[in-house]
């Protein structure tokens, strides 16, 4: 039995591969390294340098490695940039998922866990987002993730494909000393890079209607997220019925200022963050419930905010710029 992990050389994907290994499950990674890192994948794990847009290549490789199920994380993940590059975003995310589903259908591979996004909800004034909260994506990235869910759902109706989609917000921390978030846009790596360069991290907006005036967001540890993906794929392989979507939420948000304070504590660097104006479109609070995932996927917040920050700091690359 082997599980294909698309995007398995990326920050989240590499953690999923390590979690599969701990669970005693064999994995195969396909990644075109457009944002992933080859050294995130251990030598003993089969690695395929391939774009998932290459349907013919996917069919050949999935057949060669006798794939039984797929965890699909590959995609263009930058919501803000997707507004500037909508065609590229749709091509990579919608086209890539379509190509993957075509290859799976040709080979009769009957189970998929889709890494979706809480970006499908858009801006909402609901205190706690659930799976029943209406979707309203506000970027091509969020739209592409929602369309991906729809395509998988429709394929399931047509072929009996077993599936579930996992929606989550901000993934942080590190579960392995050699795996780190190299995103040029995410808060944690931005703060770490700034401190490593002797600069002051920035808070965008301090006048929101929140307890300390800064945005409140849902942060989850990457290792906890990876375990949920593994539980989901195992249940699908066992023939269990899962909900079509799950929120992997904390149920309790953290403010940007709280993160800055936790970073100062974890790093021992005493700093006062730079304060800037709000960014357009940033809602005051977005937090999701994870109750449904707790019920079906053993979803738990096993790491505290201090754990998240400390692990991210320990795993930072040497120059904090990679």
Automatic annotation (TrEMBL):
Keyword NAD: yes
Keywords: Carbohydrate metabolism, Isomerase, NAD
Any Pfam family: Epimerase
Enzyme Commission number: 5.1.3.2
SUPFAM superfamilies: NAD(P)-binding Rossmann-fold domains
Gene3D superfamilies: NAD(P)-binding Rossmann-like Domain (3.40.50.720), UDP-galactose 4-epimerase, domain 1 (3.90.25.10)
Domain NAD-dependent epimerase/dehydratase: residue ranges: 3-249
Pathway(s) it belongs to: Carbohydrate metabolism; galactose metabolism
Catalytic reaction equation(s): UDP-alpha-D-glucose = UDP-alpha-D-galactose
Record-level Gene Ontology MF annotations: UDP-glucose 4-epimerase activity
Obligatory cofactor(s): NAD(+)
Family: Belongs to the NAD(P)-dependent epimerase/dehydratase family.
NCBIfam families on file: galE
Name of the protein described by the UniProt record: UDP-glucose 4-epimerase
Name of the encoding gene: galE
